[in-house]
Amino acid sequence: MLVPDPKVVRTLLTRYASLKIAQAERERAETARELEDVSYTLCVMMGTAGIHEAIVRADALLLASGRAADVTTDTDGESGLSLAV
Q1: 10 alpha carbon, distance to own chain's centre
Q2: What letter would DSSP give residue 15?
Q3: What b/e readout covers 11-25, taking b as 16+ CB neighbours within 10 angstroms?
Q4: Alpha-helical segments (H) within the chain
Q5: How far is CA 43 from the centre of its chain?
Q6: In terms of CB atoms within 10 Å, which of 15, 29, 76, 78 comes out highest?
Q7: Rounded distance, CA 47 to CA 77, Å?
Q8: Which of 1, 8, 43, 36 is nearest to 20 (CA)?
């Protein structure tokens, strides 16, 4: 089974949240279309039929990848991960 890149998943989740906020503040057709596209992409990447389950799986993937990064720290205590998100 292919596992999505956590960086891509994090970017999609961030975009999804931003679009949801923008749509709640002011409904626009363009924002609705982009939100639909991002939702569809998240569902496909996470192998789900609905956005809520996709978000749950994406969160679990990011949590698991964070734990893996904690385990693989260098000897000086640095994980090598960028602080920029």
Answers
A1: 3
A2: H
A3: ebbebbeebeebeee
A4: 6-25, 29-46, 51-71
A5: 11
A6: 15
A7: 35
A8: 36
At residue 48, the pLDDT reads: 96
Residue 61 clears pLDDT 90, i.e. is over it? yes
Q: Using an 8 Å Cβ cutoff, are 32 and 23 in contact?
A: yes
58: its two tokens: 């994406």
pLDDT digits (tens, 9 = 90+) for 3-42: 999 999 999 999 999 999 999 999 999 999 999 999 999 9
- pLDDT score of 79 more than 70: no
- pLDDT, residue 83, reads 47
How far apart are the two ends of the chain, measured CA to CA in Å? 27
Of residues 1 and 13, more confidence is placed in: 13
CA dist 81 and 74 (Å) reads 11
Contact yes or no for 61/9 (Cβ under 8 A): yes
